[in-house]
Every structure is written in C-alpha cells, then in structure tokens.
Amino acid sequence: CWEKKGDLTRALADYTKSIQLDPAMPWVSEDRARLRYNNKDYAGAIEDYSRVIAQRLAKNEKSDYVLPGLYYRRGLARKNAEDYAGAAADFTAAIDNPESKGVTISDMSILDHAQYERGVVRQSQKDYDGAIGDFTQVIARSPKDYEAYFSRGWTWARKPDYSRALADFTR
C-alpha cells in the first residue's frame, strides 16, 4: 500500500518487518528486492533475490517457472553493480533453466532477455565472440528484435568486421 502511495521508505520498512516476522515468505523478499532495485540499491536487491533463489532451490522442485526470472533479475542487479562475472553466471542460470522459454516479460521470453543481457555483459568484457553468439541466438528466436541486431552490429564493429556490422545496422 505504501509503495503505491509513493512512500518508499515506509514500504521498505513494512517489507523488512514482514521478512523479520516470517522469513519463509519468498514473495515478500522478492517484492522488497524489486523495490530496492528500482531505487538503485543493487546490493540490497542482490541480497533479497539470493534469499528467494535459495528458498526456491531448497524446495527442490524439478520444474520451477519462477527461478529463471529471479536469476534474470538478480543478474540485472549484478550488472548494474558492475559484478559482471556474477551477472553472466545468473544470466546463464536463467538461460539454462528449462522453464525460461515459457516465462515472458513484455512479450519476450526470459530466455531471450537473459541471452541478450549476457551478450551485453560479454560485450563489456570484450568477449566479442561470446557476445556475437548470444545476440545471434536471440535473433534466431526473435528475428524482429532490432536491439539484438544493433548490439551484434556494434560488436562486429569492435572486432572489427565492418561489413557484418553494416549488414546488422541496416536490417
């Protein structure tokens, strides 16, 4: 309620109190993680997402459609905190989860989101071949994804392979 009213301090306090009273409620930690992430408290978001992931893994369910999104969101927090190795590991965990194809954010699968973001991380680490591979896989599944074409083109230009870069920029 406080969050919807724009009182983020009270919302954070309520989430924290709820977690203290019953730490076994993963949805509260997930909501607090989202609030922390949106307020650029990436360390706090990573902590909360890690708690929720550990709780879900402890259930030892073979099929958990929530895990890919949690790994993806923690990966974003780690990327913004400049923990690129941790971000890449989380994006890989989301990609490798068999449920990642069926979960969507803004009409795009978690698989594509995570693969794209891992490409961005690899690009920032100058792993151009790895980044190109990730962007190419996103394009293969989502051929109208202009961001993947642009990012792959940018990466080709850094190699440098300007003819392939130009081909991606003009699609």
Question: Could you write a compact summary of the structure shown?
Answer:
This protein is mainly alpha-helical. 73% of the residues lie in helices and 2% in strands. A two-stranded antiparallel sheet has the order 1-2.
Q: What structural category do the secondary elements indicate?
A: mainly alpha
Q: Which spans have pLDDT < 50 for at least 5 consecutive residues?
A: none
The percentage helix is: over 70%
Specify the oligomeric state.
single chain
Sheet bearing the most strands, described?
Answer: 2 strands, antiparallel
Counted beta strands? 2
Order of SSEs: HHHHHHEEHHHH
Widest sheet: strand ordering: 1-2
Radius of gyration: 18 Å
Report the mean per-residue pLDDT as an integer. 90
So how many helices?
A: 10
What is the terminal-to-terminal distance? 45 Å
Question: What spatial form do the alpha-carbon principal axes imply?
Answer: elongated
Beta-strand residue fraction: under 5%
